[in-house]
Amino acid sequence: MIRIERRLAQPRWLSLAVPVGSVVVAFGVMTLVLLLTHHSPGQTFRRIFDTGFSGSQSLNGTFVSATPLLFTGLCAAVAFRMQLFNIGGEGQLYMGAIFGAAAGIAIGDHSGWVSIPAMIAAGGLGGAAFALVPAILRAFLSTNEIITSLMLNYAGALVINYLIFDSQSYWRDTSSPTAKVFPQGKNLPDAAAWPVSHVGSLALPFGLLVGVAIAVIVWVLYTRTRFGFEVQVIGDSPRAASYAGMRTRRKILAVMAISGAIAGVGGASQDGDFRHTLDPRGLTSAGYGYAGIVIAALARYNPFAVVLVAFLLGGIQNAGYALQGADFPSGLVGVLQGLILFCALGGELLIRYRLRLARTRRTAEATA
Amino acid sequence: MPAAVELRGITKRFPGVLANDAVDFEAVEGEVHALLGENGAGKSTLSNILTGLYRPDEGEIVLGGSPVTFGAPRDALDAGICMVHQHFRLVPPFTVAENVILGFNQGEGKKFMVHPRRIERHVAELGRRYRIAVDPGARVWQLSLGEQQRVEILKALYRQARILILDEPTAVLTPQESASLFETLRVMADEGRTIIFISHKLHEVKAVSDRVTVLRAGKNVDTVETKDATPRSLAALMVGREVALAERVERDVEVGAPVLEVRDLWSAGDRGGDALRGVTLTVRAGEIVAIAGVAGNGQRELAETVTGMRPSSRGEVVVDGGKLHAGDARAAIRAGVAHVPEDRLHTGVAPSLSIASNVVLKSYRGSTVTTGPLLRLRAIREHAAALIKRYDVRGGRPELPARQLSGGNLQKVVLAREFHGEPRVLVVASPTRGLDVAAIETVHAYVREAASRGVGVLLISEDLDEIRALADRILVMYEGGIAGELDGRTASVGELGLLMAGGRPE
Q1: pLDDT tens per residue across span A52-74
Q2: Measured between CA atoms, how close is B50 to chain A, in angstroms?
Q3: Reading across the β-sheet that carries B32-37, which strands appear in turn?
Q4: B316 and B462 share one domain
Q5: pTM (2 d.p.)
Q6: Is residue B378 domain-shared with residue B325, that is, in the same domain?
Q7: Number of A:B CB contacts under 8 A?
Q8: Average pLDDT, chain A
Q9: Which domain holds residue B312?
C-alpha cells in the first residue's frame, strides 16, 4: 500500500529535482503516445532537439517562439507569487498588442528612440488596464479572479477581431482595394520595428532582451524590496498581512497591474518584433497566455527559472512547427506540452508530500 | 472490575516524531479516567488510535477482553467508542435531533425516511435522564458552544456508547457549566460506562476523575488513584520535575496615566450582528487588565477592533491621548499598540516565511532595516539572530520557516517582535493556549515584565488560572459587553463564573 504523508520540511534539492523529473516523466508518457500513434519516439525526439536547440538557425527560431512565452510566463509568475491567480495573460497580451500598435501607428515614421519606448509603455498600459478589471473586482468585491480574468481572455479576443475584421477601426488597413476584401491591420512604420541584436550567428529579438531585463527587475522587486516583502507575506498568510498593517487591497491592484503590464509589453513585442501589424489570427490562435501558466508553474514562480523554461518550451514549440505535416499532426506537440503541465502539477504534490510504501501488518502476517 | 478497554504497547510514529512510545493504558467499566499530559505528550494521538482515526504501528487494542483492529473510525463507533472533539463535529443548519442521528446506521438513523418528532422525543428523554438541557428541535447554529457540547454528548448517549472520550471539554464552558458536565459524566460512569477525560488542567482532573494516567513525551509515566494525588504531584509527573504552578506573583504595581481608553466601542461580528456592544474600558500604564469570558462573547472582536484589524461601527479607541483611526492596523502599530494574537500560527506570523522575515513583519517599513525601498537583508538577519538569542528561541535560525518552530518557541518569536517595538499598549489574546507548563511560565514572566516597564497590558484569555495569576483587574465580557469588574487579587471563581454566565453579583 502506498501512503501519502505530509512533509514537515521541504528539502531544497526537491525544488530542482521535481520539475526536472516532471519533464522526464512527461517525455516518458509521450514515448507511449508516439508508439501508439506509430511514430518512432527516438526519431521524433531527435528531430525536436535538432529543430529546437541545435544550430544557430534552430536557436534563432526558438528565440522567436520563446519571446512571448517569456512575457506571459513572467506575467503569471508575478501574480501567482501572491496567490493571485491571473489566468488573463492571454487577453492582457492582446490589449498590449492593440495599444502598442496604436502607439506605433500614431507616432509615425520618425525615430525608433521615440516609437519603441512609446510602444512598450502603451502596451504595458493596455495590459495593466485590462488586468485591473479582475483586480478591482477581487480587491473590493472578493470576486474570484481566476474566473474573471479567464473570461476576459475571450472578451479580449473578440475586441481584437472586431478591430480588424468587423469595423473600420484605426488599426485596419483600408488603403488598398485588396485590403477591403481581405481585412488586415495597418502596417507599422519602419521606426516602430524593434531592432534585432546579433551575437555571432545568433539573432536576439529586442523583446527577448526586454523580457530578460524584466525578469531581473522582478527578481529584485520580489526579493530585495519592501514591496516584495509585502507580496510574500500576503501570499503566505493574508491574516498575518492584515495583522501587520499591510494594505492588501492596494497590493492586489499593484500586483495585477504589474502582471498585466508584463503581458502587455509581450503584446507590443509581437507588433514590434515580429508581426509589424495588429494581427488577430496569429495572436489569438497561439495560446501564449495559457502556455505562460505552464511555464510559471514549472519555474515555481522564480523569474530566472521562467527565462529558462520559456526557452525550453519555446524550443519545443518551434520544433512543433517544423515537425507538423501530413505524417505528424501538430496536435501531438500540444499533447507533449499538456503532458509537461500535467506532470508539473503532479510533481507539486511530491514537494509537499512524500510517498511511503507502508508494510501493512495484515499482509505481513498473511505471508508469514 | 473488568477492563472495558485496554491498550497494550501502543507505538505510533510520525515523520520525525515518536508520538506514542509503547503506551499501556487500561480503563475499567464505571470509571472516569483522566488522561493528563502537556501538549505534544501524545494524548491526542492515543485517543485518535482508540477511535480508529490512526492505526498504531505496534501494539494492540483490547476491547472487553478480545483484541480488535479498527480500520476506520466507523469500526470504533460500531464497537461503542465515541469521542467529543474539541472542535465539534456538528452540522450547524441541522436540528439537534438531526445531528444526533447523523451518520448513525442503526435505529432511526438506519431508516430511509426520517421521523423528526420520534427522534426529538427520544433525545428529550435522554436529556431528562442525564440532566442535559437542550431543546432537540433547535438548530445547532443557534446554540452556545456549551450547548453544542451537550449535543455531542447526547449523540454518544443515543448511540449507547460504552466508552466516551472527551478532549479538553471544559475550554468552552463557564465554571458552573463545567460542574454540571462533571455531574453528567458521573451519572454516565455510575451506569457502567467508561469515561476517558483528556485535559491538562489539574484541578479539573482532581475534581472529576477516579484514576489518572499521565503521559509525557509519548510514554505512560504513571497511572495513579486520583484520591492519592495532589495537583502538585500530578504536575511533577506531567513535566518530569517539580514546577511552580501558574501562581500569582504580586508585583509592585505603579499604575500610571491611562494609556488605552476604549469608549463605547461597537463592531460587527463575522456573521453579521454586533459582536461588540458598547465596550468601555481603561488600561493604565503598568497595569494588567484581563478580559475573562466564555469563548465567543466578543473577546476576539475586542482584540481585533482595538488593534485596528476590525473596523468599529461606533465609539473610539484612544492610545496615549490620541484617537486611533478605526480599522487601520498600521495606525494602531504606529501609536504603539503591540498585539499577540490568538491564532499565532496564521495571524501572528507568516508561517512559510523565515523567522528573519517574521521578526520584521511590522518594522519592515522602518529605517533600521531598509534603505529607501530596499530591504537590508543582512541587517534583518542579524536582528533576527539577536532576538533569537535574547528570547531563547530553541532551535531557531534566522532562515528557518516559522512554521517549523514548536508552539512555545513560535510564541517567543511573536513576543520578541512585539516587545522590541517599545509598545505603549500590549494586547495579548490567549497567549499560552496549547503551550506546555514551562513555556507558560516564560510567557507569563514576559507579560509581567512588560507591565513593570510601564506598558498597559490588556490580557484576553479563557483560562481563569491564567487570569488569576496575572491580572490586576478583571473585566468579564458577556454578549459583547462588559458584564462586571472584579479585583484581580480577590476575585473568586464563583464570582467570575456568575458574571461569565451573564448573571449579576449580589
Answers
A1: 888 899 999 999 999 999 999 99
A2: 17
A3: B81-84, B163-167, B194-199, B32-37, B211-216, B219-225
A4: yes
A5: 0.79
A6: no
A7: 79
A8: 88
A9: 246-336+423-506
